[in-house]
Amino acid sequence: MNAFGPYLGRQQRLSGPTAPVLDKYRLEPFAAVHLADDATVDEAVGRAAASFAAVSLTPPERYEVLSRAARLVRERHDDLVDTMVAETGFTLKDCASDVSRCVQTLVTSAEEAKRLEGEMVPLAGAPGQSHRLGFTLRVPLGVVCAITPFNSPLNTVAHKVAPAIAAGNTVVVKPSQYTPVSAAKLAEVLYDAGLPDGHLCVVFGSGEDVGSRLVADERIAFYAFTGSTQVGESIQRGAGLRRTQMELGSIASTIVMADADLELAATKVTAAAFRKAGQVCTSVQRLFVQDAVFDEVAGLLTARVRDLRVGDPRSPDTDVGPMISVREAERVEAWVRRAVDGGARLLTPLERRDAVVSPVVLSDVRPDMEIHCREVFGPVLALYPFGTLDEALAGVNDSPYGLSAGIFTSDIETAFRAARRIRTGVVQVNETSSSRVDLMPFGGTKASGHGKEGPRYAMREMSEERLVVLNLRADEEGPGS
Lowest CB count within 10 Å: 56, 285, 378, 430, which one? Predict the structure, then answer.
């Protein structure tokens, strides 16, 4: 069984207490990590801060490192997929997609490293200022701290690390305790690609211990976090005036209008609700279906769910593997059973074996049920009938969250009305809430957080704008402040 230590630069430190990393389907250890104590966390931040002060990569050098890293990820595809299947329980198809998307995130970040620009400021437009020239620069912040979740242990880490490096920062990463090995292997890739020693440090441990220590360290200039709203609020309080990017909780909704392509909608919703066992922040949890086609859509969905293969994620035919832990699977099962006891109707059977929960489709869900008003983060889809578009939009917006939403319709006016009135960071037309291209700006509103992922947009979050003014007639004074 391989053991992975904290990266405090190029080398791992293989010392200190260890914690097992479970294979989420077999429920047995397949690796171990050395946990970071306070001194190790302090050293990691110190190494990142010292490396930022000592070594400044030029934009072309950042491009070269990230481009080489993308090539190495391609070369190590099979090993990375095997690692993710073990530590997440996600299927071969889902893990292969995560590796491919990681390559694109690295490639796009490399390209954007050469395009991080400021802008001209038209000072000559002010009276008497024709002798002044103004422009802005984008400059790095310093040490970026990335705290990442289990449900995309390679690509989400890349979405934080690669833009940070592309913008000229150094990085400290704390991955999820459930899935630390993928982050360690990405660090190995980046150092093999030529990243300077100390530019990336990785520490393992709990959010309560290691995460809290990182938030308290004033040497960190920026926090990039993906996780629950509760934890995000805690990080934001600890960060104070330091900047953050937060991708937080979600109860994602999608609308199906009567004029939509129903076969297309049913196929896409099935994939979006149940891939990664529903453990995606944008997984479709609420599906609003217009009255005239409700029964037809329900039938199409249940037929597709019956065809899904559930079980061993290492089988190429498996569509839905285990959840991240038995405890989480038990929670989802309990929420569904309480909903059914309260009057909700099961359209597909509820079955659980260890951490594997069969995909569940429900109707007649009331607003006070956990399945409706809390983020399920599991393979559960609730259907709601509606009459008018206004009713559907009200249902989508009736949530503390606002990350992403989708609508299926053949009417352009309906699409534009939805796009203007749905209060989420992303609105997808003829796609589900869960559709994403890695180069696009991605982020939420309300309790789903703030700031944007997507390399170009994250780089602007992870840099600051500096105004430079040239007085071309130094004998004259400008206006006072």
Answer: 56
Q: What is the 3-class SS of 431-471, one letter each residue?
A: CCCCCCCCCCCECCEECCEECCECHHHHHHHCEEEEEEEEE
Rounded Cα–Cα distance for residues 264 and 261 (Å): 5
For the stretch 215-248, pLDDT in tens is 999 999 999 999 999 999 999 999 999 999 999 9
- Helices assigned H by DSSP within 90-221: 92-113, 155-166, 181-192, 212-216
Q: Is the pLDDT of residue 480 over 80?
A: no
CA distance 102 to 153: 10
Bin 461: left if φ > 0, else alpha if -120 < ψ < 50, else beta. Answer: alpha
- CA quadruple 445, 447, 452, 454: dihedral, nearest 10: -110
What share of the chain in percent tops pLDDT 90? 97
The token pair at 322 is: 């285990």
Enter the tokens of residue 451: 């700031």
Q: Provide the H-helix boundaries in 342-433.
A: 370-373, 389-397, 412-421
Residue with tokens 């994403």: 436
Facing residues of 427 across strands?
A: 405
| DSSP element (H, E) containing 178 | none
Could you tell me if 389 and 257 are in contact, meaning their C-beta atoms sit under 8 angstroms apart? yes
| CA end-to-end distance (rounded Å), the chain | 64
User: Cα–Cα distance between 22 and 126 in angstroms, integer?
Assistant: 64
Active-site positions?
A: 247, 281
Give the pLDDT of residue 12: 92
Do the strands 380-386 and 284-290 form a parallel or antiparallel pair, or are they unpaired? parallel
CB-based contact 219:46 (threshold 8 Å): yes
Q: Where in 122-163 does DSSP place strands (E)?
A: 132-140, 143-147
